[in-house]
Amino acid sequence: MRTRNDEVVCMFQDKVSQLLLRHRSILDTLSQHAESAVRVNKSITRTVTSCGCISVNARKQHVPPEVSLKDCRKYLHSHIEGSLCEACKEMVEEEMGNNLFYLAAICHLLDIKLDAIIKREYNRLEALGFFHLS
Ligand SMILES: [Zn+2]
Fold it and tell me: Is the pTM of this model over 0.90?
C-alpha cells in the first residue's frame, strides 16, 4: 500500500538525484553528509548559546528499578528547557533538510530506496515496540 508520505520521499530522492552534479562522487557525498550532520548539531547548539530560546539542564537520569520499560518515559527527561523560536526552528530545519539531501544522495548513488528504508524501520519499530531501545 502506498501512502502520500511514500510518494514525497520518492519524489525527494528523485529530485536529489537530478540535482546531484557537484557531489557525484560517493566520497564527496559521504563527506558532505558527515559535515551536514555536524551543522545540524551546531545549529541546535546555537539555539542554546546564541539565541537562548532553549537551554540545557542536564543531570543524571534516575529511573526507579521497579518501573516497567513502558513507564520509563515518565522518569526520563530530555534535559531541554524552553522551545525553539521561529528563527531557530527555521535554521535547524534547514540544516536537517540539507542532511536529508545528502542521505538521499548516498541512497541514490548506492541504488537504495530511501522510502524502503523508512518503511522497513517503521515496521521494525512497530514490531519491537519499546524493545528497540538498546
Ligand atoms: Zn531561538
Answer: no
